[in-house]
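Before relying on records like the one below, remember that each one covers exactly one chain. Contacts with other chains, cofactors or solvent are not represented anywhere in the record.
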Amino acid sequence: MMKAAWKQIRNSLEKSLNPGLFTVWIKPLDGIVEGGRLTLTAPNEFVANWVRERLLQVIREAAAEVMGSDPRISVVAGKSAPAAAPSVREHREAAPSQLGLPIAEAPRTVTVRNWRFSFEDFVVGPSNELACAASKSLCDSAFSSDHLFLSSGPGLGKTHLLQSVGNQLCRAANRKQLKVACLSSEDFATRMVLAIKSRQVDVFKAQFRENLDVLLLEDVHFFQGKEKMQEELLCTLTALRERGCKVLLTSSFMPKEFSGVDNRLVSRFCSGFLAHINRPDMETRRRIVMEKARKLQVSVPVEVSELLAERITTDIRQLESCLTNLVLKARLLNRAVTLNLAWEVLDNYAVHHAAPDLLNIVEFICKSYGLSEDELKSKSRKRQVVLARNTAFYLARKHTDLSLKDIGDKLGRRHSTVLKGITKVEREISLQTPLGRQIEKTTDRLTP
């Protein structure tokens, strides 16, 4: 019972925290609930201090939900018996728990059951045809390049293809344990910082440069402006290329659009095959709805699939979420999936007859944030103005075909400023911070 309560608390934290944060700092903890006290045991004092200083409040909130009252929490460092000094090889290949580091979840063998997506359930259309073909070819030894760079706006299939590549490579491997690392760029950076602080840089380098067959790294635009991390990533990619390893990188931007990134790293990004995913057309969106319905084992009338595809045009995740909610509502009410029910569910989503242009977006942002157009385009660094401006950049990138330079020109900013603003907004939304949720609610109200 004592362990079961901690398991529930940990499950709650896994849902609320960024995956990298949870993996590195929460997963290594052991917990016991006794009465109104939660005692957490960390693998070492470094982790214990980090958790005490930065995560205690969020743990307390999750524990209160499970335990029914505000708990007393203590975080202690575990003790382990001394062991003989390992050889260099043993040191590099030691299990994370043996090292006593929260870098515990560093890249290791990934089995097929861990993959969320496959090529079989990826709907191909004119917008993603090249990216899908390149991703499949990466799994083929005959492909001339072992490096692939995928870019697209949010919710258009980058993660699906990246996961599909990992899935396919693991299934086709002639060895049972293909060494694959699949992680976000923020997670990579967190592990690097942790390795530096715990004086295990050699272990970190060995894990990423010597002990991998495949690297699948998401959102590499995260490295903009982070010089030391860029150097480490460049060395990692160079080492993997020399060993003939496969690498797939994803980003919301093409390498040429990056700002504050070393030219050598940009060159490395461009050294493989580059493919961009555009917004899907009406027919592709309709087929995505039907594929999702097949997976949900529900019959969806043609007119319903056409309505959803017509009204939700810019984000596939939102399209799939809408269908899932429609099916769930039908089942809860014991009703069939009908056009009327679809209209009811669509009220909860940002739907458009046509994608808004920049004038619509500027007008919407000014109204939402109580600003004039002159204020939005001004040099003001007031928090509210900067937030409004960054949200406008984000919506312009999401809903129009304008380049970063064009967006910057029309709003009086350089393309590097536009890129940084979009990255900040995407990160807040991705992490579901209070500010991210606020931005999401604002942008969901946008109408043409």
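The longest helix spans residues 316-332.
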